[in-house]
């Protein structure tokens, strides 16, 4: 239906069961759309890069047909000049980084990504000074370069790279959505990293001190419970469960022992469920849903890990999480307990994640091949596992000893015992 759109005509249009368009006879591509609800809106229809599309101009209750027609003419002119009016419209309503995270990136992208919540928190925490800046702020590149220089004073290059990668991904998505015309971080390259960094693992003395500190911590907790129950008994109160009848005083010792014996990541241990433990075949399943790589893997349980899990399991804990936190929720962190334990054991610069390195290092030093270590750790390729190769120098020595020649005296060296000047 083509007719010149006037105020009187638009007001006279009635709603139908299905939406319909009335196209303007004066300007080709200009139309009014009538919804079943009775709402009327002006649109401009145009062709961009060989594809026909349309852009809403305004509600008919806000603009007159003449005003909307003028705007439609400008939009079509932009399309004729090769500009995308939709992208131009989005860029004109550029949001701040904070608004973008709350309204666009968070609900439309991060909410569907496994690490989305962590990525969002990282951006908001690390780049809080940038949350009020517009996405297309032309000074952002220099500001981020200065931020990186300051950040490197306190954090390792790998950490800074991860921070910037999270923000870079957000701007890449904004670019794909047409919210910005240029990627502000395009020229900010990742810092060069040592491909074979030093691997932190415990020496024999540190390992002994860590295990002794765990035992000492358990005894302190039990003594505390004994004292508290005595206090309750003296006042006629029901005592709490006797921890001396339990294999473990609390979660920390079994959690640490399992980590040392399996090399599981902290998040994988926190998300471990009893259904993932196969006591019959002595294996633990790290589900793809909780694994960093997204791929399910199976880890054999050695005797210590198996005994630890059997001793830790109690009927009262049910069939949910192996290590439930407060009110049965998943653990968020064990930072305070871990730092206190390390201080008691007099161990410096050893993160929870380093127990994973300790597991891999002990395997390599025991002669286990790198590919098996890779599979146990859940690395997607061997590049991440090669960092442990230097811990097995005997393998390289044995390899070069395999080089033999057809003749045993390929090179004859003169004796130097009777050498003369």
Number of helices: 15
Strand order of the largest sheet: 1-2-3-4
What's the helix-strand series?
Answer: HEEEEHHHHHHHHHEEEHHHHH
* Largest sheet composition: 4 strands, antiparallel
Q: Count structural domains.
A: 3
Return the structural class.
alpha+beta
CATH architecture type of the largest domain: Orthogonal Bundle
What share of residues are in beta strands?
A: 5-15%
For the termini, the CA-CA separation is 114 Å
Q: What would you call the shape?
A: elongated
Description:
The protein has 421 residues and is of the alpha+beta class. The protein folds into three domains: 7-91, 2-Layer Sandwich (Double Stranded RNA Binding Domain), CATH 3.30.160.390; 97-176; 204-398, Orthogonal Bundle (hpI Integrase, Chain A), CATH 1.10.443.10. The chain contains 15 helices and seven strands. The protein has helices at residues 7-12, 65-80, 85-92, 97-108, 116-126, 140-151, 157-176, 204-234, 252-262, 266-270, 303-312, 335-345, 354-365, 370-377, 393-400, and strands at 20-23, 30-34, 40-48, 51-59, 277-278, 283-286, 297-300. It has a four-stranded antiparallel β-sheet with strand order 1-2-3-4, covered by helices on one side. β3 (40-48) and β4 (51-59) form a beta hairpin. α5 (116-126) crosses α7 (157-176), α9 packs antiparallel against α11 (303-312) and α9 (252-262) packs across α13 (354-365). It is elongated, with a radius of gyration of 33 Å. The mean pLDDT is 86.
């Amino acid at each position: 239906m083509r007719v010149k759109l006037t105020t009187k005509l638009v007001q006279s249009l009635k709603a139908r069961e299905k939406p319909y368009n009335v196209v303007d006879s004066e300007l080709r591509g200009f139309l009014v759309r009538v919804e079943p609800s009775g709402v009327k809106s002006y649109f401009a229809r145009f062709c961009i890069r060989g594809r026909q599309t349309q852009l809403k101009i305004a509600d008919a209750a806000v603009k007159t047909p003449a005003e909307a027609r003028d705007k439609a003419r400008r939009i079509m002119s932009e399309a004729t000049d090769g500009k995308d009016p939709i992208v131009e419209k989005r860029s004109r309503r550029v949001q701040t980084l904070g608004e973008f995270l709350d309204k666009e990136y968070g609900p439309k992208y991060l909410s569907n990504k496994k690490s989305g919540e962590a990525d969002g928190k990282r951006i908001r925490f690390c780049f809080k000074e940038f949350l009020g800046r517009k996405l297309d702020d032309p000074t952002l590149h220099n500001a981020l370069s200065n931020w990186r220089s300051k950040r490197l004073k306190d954090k390792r290059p790998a950490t800074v790279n991860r921070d910037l990668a999270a923000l870079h991904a957000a701007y890449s998505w904004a670019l794909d959505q047409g919210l910005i015309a240029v990627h502000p971080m395009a020229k900010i390259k990742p810092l060069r990293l040592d491909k074979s960094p030093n691997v932190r693992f415990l020496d024999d003395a540190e390992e002994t001190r860590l295990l002794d500190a765990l035992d000492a911590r358990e005894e302190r907790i039990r003594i505390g419970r004994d004292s508290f129950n005595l206090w309750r008994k003296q006042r006629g109160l029901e005592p709490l469960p006797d921890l001396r009848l339990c294999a473990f005083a609390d979660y920390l010792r079994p959690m640490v022992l399992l980590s040392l014996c399996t090399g599981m990541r902290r998040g994988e241990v926190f998300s471990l469920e009893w259904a993932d433990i196969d006591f019959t075949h002595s294996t633990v399943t790290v589900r793809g849903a909780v694994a960093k790589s997204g791929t399910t893997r199976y880890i054999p349980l050695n005797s210590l890990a198996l005994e630890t899990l059997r001793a830790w399991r109690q009927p009262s804990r049910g069939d949910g999480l192996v290590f439930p936190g407060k009110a049965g929720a998943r653990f968020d962190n064990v930072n305070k307990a871990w730092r206190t334990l390390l201080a008691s054991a007099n161990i410096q610069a050893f993160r929870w994640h380093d127990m994973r390195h300790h597991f891999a290092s002990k395997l390599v030093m025991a002669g286990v091949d790198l590919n098996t270590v890779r599979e146990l750790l859940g690395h997607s390729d061997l590049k991440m596992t090669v960092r442990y190769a230097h811990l097995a120098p005997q393998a390289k020595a044995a390899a070069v000893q395999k080089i033999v020649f057809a003749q045993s005296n390929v090179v004859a060296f003169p004796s130097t015992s009777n050498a003369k000047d």
